[in-house]
Amino acid sequence: MPPANPKLKAALEFGPVLAFFAGYVALRERMFEIGGQEYAGFIVLTGAFIPVFLLASWLMYRLVGRVSRIQVMTVVMVVVFGGLTVWLNDERFFKMKSTLVFGLIAGLLWIGLARGQSWLEYVMEGVIRLRHEGWMTLTRRLAWFFAGLAVANEVIWRSLSTDVWVTFDTFGQPAAVFVFFMAQARLIEAHMIEDGD
Hints:
There is one protein chain. The protein has about 200 residues and is mainly α. The chain has two domains: about 1-90; about 90-195, no CATH class. It has eight helices and two strands, in the order αββααααααα. The chain has helices spanning about 5-25, 40-65, 70-90, 90-115, 120-125, 130-160, 160-185, 185-190; strands at about 30-35, 35-40. Strands 1-2 form a two-stranded antiparallel ribbon. α1 packs antiparallel against α2 and α4 runs antiparallel to α6 (about 130-160). It is a multi-pass membrane protein. InterPro entries: YciB (IPR006008).
């Protein structure tokens, strides 16, 4: 399969989330009556986000020919917690999604570490070639990082406004992940397997 168009890939990865943010900014003050029930703009957008996210995930699969295990887990969480949000007309369920996704990833990474394995290496499927000790260190750091993100998400949605949470979810979390991996450049360089190794 030829390499995926990077612009299209980025659009499929970030498009649904950015569209949700734009929709939230436009509709956050509005109420909608659907089937005799009143729904806030956040709830309506969550309901619209689910099929858009599923479509983007399916198109990503068609584009790259595979879907990562983290993507599968994210799709399941979006459908389950987004569905509960709409069904129960309660935005808290959708806000909990990130806490559970990050917490579950951290927990799985720690289980692998306890067994002397880096499940991060398994998930990344050869994207980076590192020696075992490099994978173990990176996995340990990433487990703590995701645990921190889970705590941060929980604190923000429970104690701050929905506006702050949506901004954090849309921009803060991806920025934190980017900064984390940039900060691991020295570790990755030190443990990188060269072609002659």
